[in-house]
Design a protein that fits this description.
Blueprint lengths: L12 E10 L2 E11 L4 E5 L6 H9 L6 E6 L2 E2 L10 E4 L11 H11 L4 H14 L15 H14 L4 E5 L7 H18 L2 E6 L2 H7 L2 E6 L2 E6 L1 H6 L4 H6 L4 E7 L4 E4 L3 E4 L12 E6 L4 E5 L5 E8 L3 E8 L2 E8 L11 E6 L5 E3 L5
Parallel strand pairs: 3-8, 3-9, 6-7, 7-8
Antiparallel strand pairs: 1-2, 1-4, 4-5, 9-10, 11-12, 11-14, 12-13, 14-20, 15-19, 16-17, 16-19, 17-18
The protein binds adenosine-5'-triphosphate.
Length: 359
């Protein structure tokens, strides 16, 4: 999606069957992924799943064993990093410590042989864009971590790259700054319209930033979908457990649409590869907010913890020796008290039904 003002052009980006091994470790096991022009893709997964390797392969900083990388439909697999039109921001400490913000932002332009007047103009424009024009003459050590990352972002965008790659750019910052900068990055990305890949292991960050999330595990793509798809219709067991909180009930399948959970009742569900045939027992995965809780002296669940979270309340209940989490609106707070019996009822659907785990 071109912006028509010479800013980001928004190109498609494609990884096709990319493999990369380190000795016997398969960091990328044939990764295929395509981002639409201007799309914000978040690569999410546990430590060691291959996110950084994927990003570095895109940038040309990492040799790949096989597969191809396309930017704007062009095969760049064999192009070195310096010939790819890519801006990058790393976790931290990526600014040159002996240069001011302005010189840091100018750096890439200087390397590209852009005239002093033009690069000064563009560096000012970029610092303005990230709200740091007042800090133009400061050195990295004179700025907060959040400000440094904004300078790093300005520096990455100054060269007007076709693609922006961000590798855990917020993880070194404290919670408040992180949330704030997250919003700024999202807004900036929309304004500039640049195709962006953002690596994180933080699911909340992924859900709030992404147009689509690529959930990775063991060098493989588990699912590539919108935050809603990934959260509400996880393709695999791994995605269901990795993104968001989940309760695992043991129950039975009434038919191809309805599961039955003891002490709760019927739950609608959606078939997936993991679903066993109806009739037998199964594990039924339910989000904490997909149930309602009711005070009930005959209820089969015991309230063992209540945590007030502001607009929501998190209630821990137990049945036998298994515990479950229910999230309710705060207005329902008075219906539950610690040690009381309650019953649960389906409000939404189960997100996944799978065979019972082997013991
Ligand atoms: P993290 O969130 O911890 O950064 P990640 O998902 O980014 O993890 P990668 O850094 O891509 O994961 O690593 C994928 C796998 O490849 C891991 O098992 C890692 O140990 C291995 N690996 C990465 N780089 C190297 C290297 N230079 N030499 C050997 N093994 C490596």
């Amino acid at each position: 999606v071109g912006q028509g003002d010479g800013k980001g052009q928004g190109v498609s980006v494609r990884l096709s069957n990319v493999k990369r091994a380190y000795g016997s470790v398969l960091a990328l096991a044939g990764l295929s992924l395509e981002a639409e022009p201007g799309e914000f893709v978040v690569m999410l997964g546990p430590s060691g799943c291959g996110k950084t390797t994927a990003l570095r392969a895109l940038a040309g900083l990492e040799p790949i064993d096989s597969g191809s990388v396309y930017v704007g439909g062009k095969d760049v697999t064999r192009l070195p990093a310096s010939k790819r039109s890519i801006g990058m921001v790393f976790q931290s400490y990526s600014l040159f410590p002996n240069m001011t913000s302005l010189s840091n932002v100018e750096f890439g332009l200087k390397v590209r042989g852009i005239s002093a007047t033009e690069r000064r103009r563009r560096a000012h424009e970029m610092l303005e864009m990230v709200g740091l024009i007042e800090q133009a003459d400061r050195y990295p050590h004179q700025m907060s971590g959040g400000q440094q990352q904004r300078v790093a972002l300005a520096r990455a965008l100054a060269i007007k790259p076709e693609v922006l790659l961000l590798d855990e750019p917020l993880s070194a910052l404290d919670a408040k700054v992180r949330a704030n900068l997250r919003e700024q990055i999202k807004q900036l990305q929309r304004e500039v319209g640049i195709t962006t890949f953002f690596v994180t292991h933080d699911q909340e960050e992924a859900l709030s930033l992404a147009d689509r999330i690529a959930v990775m595990n063991n060098g493989n793509l588990e699912q590539f979908g919108t935050p809603t798809e990934v959260y509400s219709a996880p393709a695999t067991d791994f995605v269901a457990s990795f993104v968001g909180n989940v309760n695992v009930f043991e129950g039975t399948l009434l038919d191809k649409e309805t599961a039955v959970v003891p002490g709760v009742g019927n739950f609608p569900y959606r078939q997936s590869e993991e679903t066993p045939t109806p009739g037998g027992s199964a594990e039924i995965l339910v989000r904490p907010e997909a149930m309602t809780i009711r005070a009930d002296s005959d209820g089969e669940y015991l309230v063992t913890d209540v945590t007030f979270l502001g607009s929501n309340v998190k209630i821990k209940v137990e049945r036998g020796d298994t515990s479950f989490i229910v999230i309710q609106g705060s207005s329902d707070l008075d219906i539950v008290s610690l040690g009381s019996k309650v019953s649960l009822e389906a409000k939404g659907s189960a997100i996944l039904v799978r065979r019972k785990a082997h013991l």
